[in-house]
Recover the amino acids of this structure.
């Protein structure tokens, strides 16, 4: 038995706004064709699920995922020009060898992203 993939589920207050946000970030997004407001956001083999949750309080939302990328600065530049309504944090070097940034959507779902500092130096 082996694990095949992982798909974090982000709670959102409005599925349509969330779908628009993740599309602007370059994800291909498709809606679930069932009775519940749900969507799938995919990009480069990464998949996030979006589930509309009644009564979600962003200040209490602790949903997060870490995304390892080959170039955190390039991703930051791309997402900076996306025109989303979330918050974006510019990458900085860490003491543990990664260059990290972050993206927070309007529902406080956090995507931290990072790339190796040593890969950047070559």
């Amino acid at each position: 038995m082996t694990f095949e993939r992982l798909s974090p589920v982000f709670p959102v207050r409005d599925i349509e706004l969330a779908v628009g946000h993740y599309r602007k970030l370059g994800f291909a997004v498709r809606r679930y064709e069932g009775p519940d407001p749900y969507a799938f956001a995919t990009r480069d083999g990464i998949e996030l699920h979006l589930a509309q949750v009644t009564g979600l309080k962003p200040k209490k939302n602790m949903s997060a995922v870490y995304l390892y990328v080959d170039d955190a600065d390039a991703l930051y530049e791309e997402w900076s020009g996306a025109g989303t309504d979330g918050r974006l944090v510019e990458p900085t070097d860490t003491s543990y060898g990664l260059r990290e940034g972050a993206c927070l959507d309007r529902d406080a779902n956090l995507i931290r992203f990072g790339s190796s500092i040593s890969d950047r130096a070559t």
